[in-house]
């Protein structure tokens, strides 16, 4: 089943048009708030773990040091991912029953309070439970806001929005890590948990934002039940793609060490090239999508992503490590909004909440799958050959996407937005 949409995508409602169509200045201000919400869904998942990354050593010491402390610190980052995997489908189910606005508000309150609880919880079990709730809140907020994006925009405008979302998430990730590190060094490490209070800003934005009404009905719930049947091929594709997208972060330092690049500062600088290029490529995804068909966009993403992995496994110099990280970041920056767009455009309006609920779980399943894919390969054929083999597998996907591009384009299911009333 090829993951393709019509090459001649409709423009859809423009970003400025969404604000301009509001009848009064107050309504336009509320529409602007809704537009802000649409541009930041991945902030929920980005903020899930980044505020605590710089305080991992302090948390390990706080919980007694040694193996027990190290376990608590590592689980502090891992447990929220479990919450996302479980909470994403739950959030989609809730959207069908209580609506987008209620899920945004509830998720923001849950994530904000659970995140800040880390500063005052001293026993490991309630501490890890609070981290699990952070994951549930992140999944709910991300799912609801991405569903809202699909409700408001279609076609090329949706492509632009999804690209902007990925860029904003990358910037927020880098910024929250830097701010948390500064707080931990110059103030007190527990204060870093206070960054989760920023998530509570979504509450007034959701209360005041203006977007089309989404009635909760039995028909919508019944339609949502069929969402998985439409998107499961894309979800399966997402797992290896996201496993590849995390190669620079999860496996990059091992490869650099094997190549004699051992300075942590140099390694982090080279790996940061992936984040920089992810931000740039995702920001320009909408422009790329307006010039290329869906499959050809995916071809570019896979060639960059797989090619970067192959390059890292083939060449040893520092410049090759930097270039490979940049290629992987650029490929991931294109693939991330593209795959999200495929999910949004393959389902009906009633199914979007349920369908979007599977995106974040697929993302984190891919991250979890990375070491399970690479470790056996490294043990069997060595790290360099493992990189080349896995990268070649990703590049092989470009061939199938190219073949899909040669097939006649079908009619775009979202060629015209359904008329809806503003809430």
From TrEMBL:
Compartment list: Cell membrane
Any one GO molecular function term: transmembrane transporter activity
From the record, give the transmembrane residue ranges.
Answer: 32-59, 71-95, 102-122, 128-149, 161-183, 195-213, 234-254, 266-286, 298-319, 381-402
* Protein's membrane topology: Multi-pass membrane protein
Q: Which UniProt keywords apply?
A: Cell membrane, Membrane, Transmembrane, Transmembrane helix
**Which Pfam families does this chain map to?**
MFS_1 (PF07690)
**Cell membrane as UniProt keyword:** yes
A GO CC annotation given for this chain: plasma membrane
- Please list the residue ranges annotated as the Major facilitator superfamily (MFS) profile domain: 34-409
Q: Highest taxon of the source? A: Bacteria
PROSITE patterns named in the record:
MFS (PS50850)
UniProt xrefs under InterPro entries:
MFS, MFS_dom, MFS_Efflux_Transporters, MFS_trans_sf
Q: What is its main location?
A: membrane
**Quick one: signal sequence residues?**
none
- Protein name stated in the entry: Predicted arabinose efflux permease, MFS family
- Native source organism of the sequence: Rhizorhabdus histidinilytica
**Native organism taxonomy:** Bacteria, Pseudomonadati, Pseudomonadota, Alphaproteobacteria, Sphingomonadales
């Amino acid at each position: 089943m090829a993951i393709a949409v019509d090459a001649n995508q409709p423009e859809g409602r423009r970003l400025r048009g969404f604000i301009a169509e509001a009848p009064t200045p107050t309504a336009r201000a509320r529409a602007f708030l809704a537009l802000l919400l649409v541009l930041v869904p991945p902030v929920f998942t980005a903020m899930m773990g980044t505020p605590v990354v710089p305080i991992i050593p302090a948390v390990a010491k706080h919980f007694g040091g040694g193996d027990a402390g190290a376990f608590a610190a590592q689980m502090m980052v891992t447990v929220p991912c479990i919450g996302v995997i479980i909470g994403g489908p739950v959030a989609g189910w809730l959207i069908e029953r209580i609506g987008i606005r209620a899920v945004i508000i509830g998720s923001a309150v849950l994530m904000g309070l659970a995140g800040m609880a880390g500063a005052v919880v001293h026993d490991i079990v309630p501490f890890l439970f609070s981290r699990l709730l952070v994951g549930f809140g992140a999944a709910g907020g991300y799912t609801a806001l991405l569903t809202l994006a699909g409700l408001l925009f279609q076609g090329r405008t949706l492509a632009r929005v999804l690209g902007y979302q990925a860029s904003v998430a990358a910037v927020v990730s880098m910024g929250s890590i830097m701010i948390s590190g500064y707080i931990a060094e110059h103030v007190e490490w527990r204060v870093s948990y206070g960054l989760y209070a920023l998530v509570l800003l979504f509450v007034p934005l959701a209360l005041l934002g203006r977007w089309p009404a989404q009635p909760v009905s039995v028909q919508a719930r019944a339609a949502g039940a069929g969402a998985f049947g439409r998107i499961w091929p894309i979800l399966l594709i997402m797992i290896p793609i996201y496993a590849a997208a995390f190669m620079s972060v999860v496996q990059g330092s091992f490869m650099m060490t094997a190549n004699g690049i051992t300075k942590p500062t140099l390694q982090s600088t080279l790996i940061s090239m992936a984040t920089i290029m992810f931000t740039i490529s995702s920001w320009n995804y909408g422009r790329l999508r307006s010039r290329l068909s869906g499959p050809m966009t995916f071809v570019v993403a896979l060639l960059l992503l797989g090619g970067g992995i192959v390059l890292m496994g083939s060449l040893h110099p520092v410049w090759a490590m930097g270039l490979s990280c940049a290629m992987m970041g650029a490929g991931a920056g294109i693939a991330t909004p593209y795959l999200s767009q495929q999910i949004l455009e393959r389902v009906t309006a009633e199914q979007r909440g349920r369908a979007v609920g599977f995106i974040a779980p697929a993302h984190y399943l891919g991250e979890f799958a990375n070491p399970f894919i690479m470790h056996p390969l490294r043990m069997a054929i060595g790290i360099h050959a493992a990189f080349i083999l896995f990268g070649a597998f990703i590049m092989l996907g470009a061939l199938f996407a190219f073949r899909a591009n040669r097939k006649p384009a079908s009619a775009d299911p979202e060629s015209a937005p359904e008329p809806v009333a503003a809430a």
